[in-house]
Write a structure and sequence with these properties.
Blueprint: H1 6-9, E1 30-34, H2 39-44, H3 46-56, E2 60-63, H4 72-82, E3 86-91, H5 98-109, E4 113-116, H6 128-147, E5 151-155, H7 159-162, E6 164-165, E7 168-169, H8 170-177, E8 183-187, H9 188-193, H10 198-205, E9 211-214, H11 243-250, E10 256-259, H12 268-281
Parallel strand pairs: 1-2, 1-10, 2-3, 3-4, 4-5, 5-8, 8-9, 9-10
Antiparallel strand pairs: 6-7
């Protein structure tokens, strides 16, 4: 195991690139939306919200958790009617009763990528032994997923890239301990909050990062930061992130750029439309309908 510094993980941010055409991929990754972003709207009007997401230009969605009273069948039907395929699903760890829930979720949405959402922070991440214990649980979850024709991945917050156990970042311990076919959905925002360069992490992971969470905002760590009540985020392209660099790093192995906003200061749909327009117009992602340049 290698002891690392923030610089080795990529703490220095690259300058923004003016000529986006140089960054655009020949075939950009698809543009998706993590439905947690519109959780409040889904509670009041699920069908209308999903149709609105499709009309914005998103090519698909990543599911989270549905309101009480909404069945998987109802949710999948609403997505189908809106013309929104499912790129992946955020799930609870598939252990105990949650194993069948994962299988039911995958079947309902026709998805094969199941992702442990990673919240809240597990206290075992505070020690090397605890981190290895969690890695063993993730490996067990991966074996169950594979046995059922599914892929298992992890979504990060800031603590995996900020917490150090025995002089080594939690993320590094996980890389050493996890089965190599467990993939990472890199939340580029939380990586930056932790003090690292998201593009460097994405480039390092290569094919193990088939999906990225794309979000923007101040991306600053402070002691009162909370994953369930973070600083308000901005539309993609209006904050501190260097998305041209991130997209370059993802070239050739990332299939989905999944926009997510945990919290916004203004209207979430306005911010989502601005995000979609920014990413598609600049060739950083591919939406369902090309946005006029």
């Amino acid at each position: 195991m290698q002891t690392v510094t923030a610089g080795m993980l990529g703490a220095t941010m690259l300058p923004h690139v003016a000529q986006y055409q140089q960054t655009a991929l020949a075939t950009p990754a698809k543009l998706g939306l993590q439905l947690y972003t519109v959780r409040d709207a889904i509670k009041t009007d699920m069908v209308g919200t999903l149709r609105r997401v499709a009309a914005m230009g998103f090519d698909g969605v990543e599911t989270a958790f549905w309101p009480d009273g909404v069945s998987l069948s109802q949710a999948s039907g609403a997505l189908r009617d809106a013309g929104l395929p499912v790129s992946s699903c955020h799930i609870e760890l598939p252990i105990g009763d949650h194993r069948q829930v994962m299988l039911d979720t995958a079947k309902a949405f026709g998805a094969t990528r199941m992702i442990w959402h990673g919240w809240p922070e597990d206290p075992r991440y505070s020690s090397l032994a605890g981190t290895k214990e969690l890695a063993a649980i993730y490996n067990e979850s991966n074996r169950f997923a594979k046995d059922n024709g599914l892929r298992f991945g992890l979504h990060n917050h800031w603590w995996e890239y900020r917490n150090s156990v025995g002089g080594t970042y939690v993320f590094e311990v996980l890389l050493d301990e996890l089965d190599p076919d467990i993939f990472f959905e890199v939340d580029t925002y939380w990586v930056k909050v932790a003090g690292h360069d998201p593009a460097a992490i994405v480039a390092r992971l290569g094919a193990r990062a088939p999906l990225l969470h794309i979000k923007d905002g101040p991306a600053q760590f402070h002691p009162n930061l909370a994953a369930d009540n973070p600083d308000p985020m901005t539309a993609v392209g209006q904050g501190t992130q260097n998305f041209p660099a991130i997209v370059r790093a993802a070239k050739g192995h990332t299939n989905w750029m999944v926009v997510e906003m945990d919290r916004t200061a203004g209207d979430v749909f306005t911010a989502l439309q601005q995000s979609c327009d920014y990413l598609v117009r600049n060739g950083l992602a591919r939406g369902r309908t090309p946005v006029p340049r």
